[in-house]
Amino acid sequence: MIYKSICRRPSTDMLRREIRMRRYRQFLLLSTELQDPADPLSKYTTQEFQNIYRLSKELFCELLNMIQGDLERSDNRGRPLPAVYQLLIALHFYCSGSYQKVVGDQHGLQVSQPTVCRTIHRVSEALAKRYSQFVTFPSVAEAADVHTKFYEVAQFPNVIGAIDCIHMRISNPGGAMAEQCKNSKGWYSVNCQVVVGPDLRILTAIVRWGGSVPDWQIYENSRLKQVLEQGEYGHLVGDSAYQCQRYLLTPVINPVTPAEKCYNRAHSSTRRKVKRVFGMVKRRFQCTSQELRSNPKTSCAIILSCFALHNFALERQGPPDDSEALYAPDDSPQDRFIGDDDPEGESYRQHIIYEWFSHDLSGVSYQTDDGMCKTQGW
């Protein structure tokens, strides 16, 4: 009996200490005087605000009006953060990738790490829910204009988009999902498929597959493939991680003839659009360059939010500075497609090579690996 009472004392003392600490934290939260919600917009100059949050003050207010209804609560229980502070905290995390505790201390509110975590989750869910407002695939009527703009890049015909996948790092989710998210390089990730247009705008994105899923399998199970097979949009250009198909052209693995080499150069220059977008997203939203320590569902919502905000900022602020548009280093797995060739795809690729790249195209400009345009006699 004495032994049992002695063993219970440490657990009881620990419980009482936890209760006291919880009450103390609640006291700090309730005693904190919230600043004027409009104060963050006047605290920084226009340039400082844009450097920190990657949006101008006008665009910030526009974005706030779009999702404010999802962030505000009907009651005042627990002293909830105003919607403006919730969006500021989420944007600060997206753009800096800092620890959540550090983000919570930036605005003079002494926000705890759990509150920051819930805030990022709430804002990301609100943006992901409105994802279709930011990311739209061109209509059939707009396809001809997209073909023309892509043709101006490297004279590659009938391109509706450049497709590629990028692995976003996440923490080990544990359980059965751990093996689904472990990629061929041994770290955990979400494999995101992205299609980009000629103006660097994201046309569609799929963010729900673990890192163990290869690129070609994501495309095979996507609705995008079904849409393209209707034959009204043209074709995509993708790397060798995909199977060469009628509506998805890949480079020639071992080019021999001059026409095949010309095709590969034009293909590479056209496909580089999607690589540039990956660099822009990673540089603008630093959280995507680091390991996301949220659960997989929240991590996917954060990634979708960054893709949506990329289009939002691009359409209203224009392309970023050259320093921000450089290609970011990509350590994602680069696995080639291993499987049977598609006869229709191989035949169509040979048709494109013969019709468009087997003639003398001297004087045509294409983009080299260093980003400079040179003139090459094909």
TrEMBL record:
In terms of Pfam families, this protein maps to:
DDE_Tnp_4
Transmembrane segment boundaries = none
**Residue ranges of every copy of the DDE Tnp4 domain listed in the record:** 163-311
Q: Which cofactor does it need?
A: a divalent metal cation
**GO cellular component: a single term:** cytoplasm
Query: Record's InterPro entries?
Result: HARBI1-like, HARBI1_animal, HARBI1_dom
Matching PANTHER family = NUCLEASE HARBI1, PTHR22930
Query: In its UniProt entry, what is this protein called?
Result: Putative nuclease HARBI1
**Which organism is this entry from?**
Cherax quadricarinatus
